[in-house]
Amino acid sequence: MVIKAILAGAAWVLTPTLALAHHAMGGQLPDGPLTGLLSGLGHPVIGIDHLAFVVGIGVLSASARLGSGPLLGFVGGTLAGCLLHVAGAELPLAEAAVALSLLVMAGLLALGRSPAPGRLLVLAAAGLAHGYAYGESIVGAEPVAVGAYLVGFSLVQAAIALGAAGLVRSLAAAAPGRLAAAANLSAVLLVLVGGALLIG
Fold it and tell me: What is the mean pLDDT of residues 133-145?
C-alpha cells in the first residue's frame, strides 16, 4: 500500500515533466540545423524517463566496470528508433516500453555484471523504444533538421552517461563501498520513475 502511494505521488509530480518530454522546442517542429540540434540536445534532458535511463547507463558502466559498451548499444538503438519513427514505422506500446526499460535498467544495476551480448541487446532494444519516443518531435521536419536532431540527442546522451560514470568512479575511488551504494540508489530511483510512468 505504501509503495503504491509513493508511485502514485511520483506519477502526479512527474506528469507535467513527461508531458513536455516530446516538445523540447515548445511544440514547434525544428525548421533547420540549429533548431534541430537544440531540440535534440533538449529532449533527453527534459524527459525524466529518458534522463533517468541515460544516468542509469553511466552508473551501470562504472559500477559493473563495463566500459563504453552499454552507452554505444543504447545510443545506436536510439538512432535506429528515431529513424524508424521518422520513416513512418509503427512501434506499438512505445511509451510502455520506455517505462519498462527503466525497470530493466534497475534490474541490471541490481545484478551488476551480466553476459555482454545479452546486456547489449537489451540496451539496444531499450534504445529503440527511447529513440522512437524522441522521433515524435521531429516527424515531418526537413532532413537537415533531422540530422542535427540525431547529432544533438546522441551527444547529450553520451555527455550525461559519461558524466554519471565519472562521478560514480570518483566516489568509488574515495570509498570503494560507495560503488554498490550508487548502483542500488540508482536502481531504486529507476523503479520509482518507471513505476510512476506505468501507473500514471
Answer: 94
